[in-house]
Specification:
The structure is a single chain. With 226 residues, the protein is of the alpha/beta class. The chain has one domain: HUPs (Rossmann fold), CATH 3.40.50. The chain contains 8 helices and 5 strands; from the N terminus they run E-H-E-H-E-H-H-E-H-H-E-H-H. It has a 5-stranded parallel sheet with strand order 3-2-1-4-5, with helices on both faces. Helix 1 crosses helix 7 and helix 7 packs across helix 8. The radius of gyration is 17 Å and the shape is globular.
């Protein structure tokens, strides 16, 4: 089995992405990034997901993006709640974390090169999502090109592949695929502003998209809402 570095946040999308990587016969090496996020409970969920899915190699990295701020997830800015469908579909919300996926993929790339792996998996989605620029296919392809220029393996003739298998799928499609692959979504966490005991708020963009996805997929939502 070829090794692949899989970015795992403990959320619905990244957990499904891990299941897809395993289904494609890759041996996953999971990277979990603690970046000072408001919803730090997701790191605990990532550990639980990796254990449940029998991942033998899990690397945890800490990068304090609160030093940069600029996001409701890494500062004291309020997380938007109860946004309308039109609001969800326009603009880049304040929950966008500047350069987050660039940083995450750079860390994953470094680990891949160290392991001698060519494949990176990231669970970004460009259909039912909050409008983040670093979730778009254009960004993924640009980073893949950068990987060839920025690494010793790349300049010596190697090639890296950045897999974003969920990119063109709706949230409902993602949930159906994960269910088919045996994902336990009860282990995952998506909420941007959870209660002190880790329950989902049910009102932030991520909760709204998650609830709608389960409803449209016809799959029971195992989330505990506060």
């Amino acid at each position: 089995m070829k090794k692949a570095v899989v970015l795992l946040s403990g959320g619905l999308d990244s957990t499904t992405c891990l299941a897809v990587a395993k289904a494609q016969a890759f041996e996953p090496v999971c990277m979990v990034v603690s970046y000072g996020q408001r919803h730090a409970v997701e790191v605990e969920r990532a550990r639980a997901v990796a254990k449940a899915m029998a991942v033998r190699d899990v690397r945890e990295v800490s990068v304090d993006l609160r030093a940069i701020g600029g996001s409701a997830l890494t500062s004291d800015l309020a997380v938007p709640k109860d946004r309308t469908e039109s609001e969800l579909g326009t603009g880049v919300p304040v929950t966008y974390v500047p350069a987050r996926n660039t940083v995450f993929l750079a860390l994953a790339l470094g680990l891949a090169e160290t392991l001698g792996a060519q494949d990176l998996f990231i669970g970004v989605n460009a259909v039912d999502y909050s409008g983040y620029p670093d979730c778009r296919p254009e960004f993924i392809r640009a980073f893949e090109a950068l990987a060839q220029l920025a690494t010793r393996a790349g300049v010596e003739g190697g090639r890296f592949y950045v897999h974003a298998p969920l990119s063109g799928m709706t949230k409902a499609d993602i949930i159906r695929e994960g269910t088919r692959l045996g994902v336990d979504y009860g282990l995952t966490h998506s909420c941007y502003d959870p209660t002190p005991d880790g329950k989902a708020c049910g009102r932030c963009d991520s909760c709204v998209l998650r609830k709608r996805g389960f409803a449209q997929a016809g799959v029971p939502d195992p989330t505990t809402y506060g």
